[in-house]
């Protein structure tokens, strides 16, 4: 049995298959996911699991060199923005329009759906290298 904190087999597999500059997305329960993008659905109930719980878990294994957030998060969900910035204080952030973020889901290894029910709680994580 794995000793690390990411014990979800699908999430662990996706992270293990990622290379430099590859992307993984985590988002709220309402984010539309393209049919060709793998969706790892963790949503159980309203807020379970939360966006931040899943992000914190993924960050235990994934080396991240850049994050992408929707421009709209600044005004529509400043609490989640603050939590992300607190968790990743030294990681460069690129803000993009939400519509562009939805299009980027065509280019990610997977989308992890949480039970988060707050607006614009979505992130693209760009993989870095550990050497």
UniProtKB/TrEMBL annotation:
Residues the record marks as active site: 20 (proton donor)
Give one GO molecular function term.
D-ribose pyranase activity
Which Pfam family would be a valid example here?
A: RbsD_FucU
Q: Which residues cross the membrane?
A: none
Question: Gene Ontology cellular component?
Answer: cytosol
Q: In which pathway does it act?
A: Carbohydrate metabolism; D-ribose degradation; D-ribose 5-phosphate from beta-D-ribopyranose: step 1/2
Example of a GO biological process term: D-ribose catabolic process
What general EC class does the enzyme of this chain belong to?
Answer: isomerase
Show the InterPro entries listed in the entry.
D-ribose_pyranase, RbsD-like_sf, RbsD_FucU
Tell me where it resides. Answer: Cytoplasm
Keywords of the record, alphabetical order, are: Carbohydrate metabolism, Cytoplasm, Isomerase
Catalysis performed (reactions): beta-D-ribopyranose = beta-D-ribofuranose
Q: In which residues is substrate bound?
A: 28, 98, 120-122
EC number(s) stated in the UniProt entry for this protein? 5.4.99.62
Q: Which family does it belong to?
A: Belongs to the RbsD / FucU family. RbsD subfamily.
HAMAP family linked to this entry: D_rib_pyranase (MF_01661)
Q: Self-association or partners: how does it assemble? A: Homodecamer.
Tell me the function of this protein.
Catalyzes the interconversion of beta-pyran and beta-furan forms of D-ribose.
What is the name listed in the Swiss-Prot or TrEMBL entry for this protein? Answer: D-ribose pyranase
Per the UniProt entry, what species is this protein from, by scientific name? Answer: Enterococcus pallens ATCC BAA-351
Its gene is rbsD
